[in-house]
Amino acid sequence: MAVTIKIEVVTPEAKVFSSEVDMVTLTGVEGEMGILAGHMPLMTQLIGGEIIMRRGSETLYFAVGDGFVQVTGEKVSILTDMAVSAENIDEAKAQEALQRAQTRLTQKLSDEESASVQASIAHASAQLRVKKFARK
Fold first, then answer.
1. What structural domains does the chain harbor?
2. Predicted TM-score of the model (pTM)
3. Mind listing the pLDDT tens digit for each residue in 80-123?
4. Which of 13, 73, 94, 96 has its CA 20 to 30 A from that of 104?
């Protein structure tokens, strides 16, 4: 029997995913990392992009925003401002959101508005990348 690690992905709105997996790959502030059962404990900042999970022969893809990751030997907890599984991504809507945000970025914006638009661009870009990965 394969050794697994529990993963939970949580956003402010809901627990998006909770399951046992064989491996988790994500990007922290120091780069991409693979996490297996028994991984040394750590806490790091999550960089928005994608999370890839392997469960047996199945590969699961999630687009995520910025957040935090806590790893114990038995569990990976991810707190993020956005998490969407590849099958729930509407590619047309993500492309439309990206174009809207890029257009808005050309306008005169306050620092707060600019940060919000940059976050929208990052979220839409992550969703489009994950959808592309999932198709392969």
1. 5-86 (2.60.15.10), 89-135 (1.20.5)
2. 0.84
3. 999 999 999 888 999 898 898 888 888 887 888 888 888 888 88
4. 13
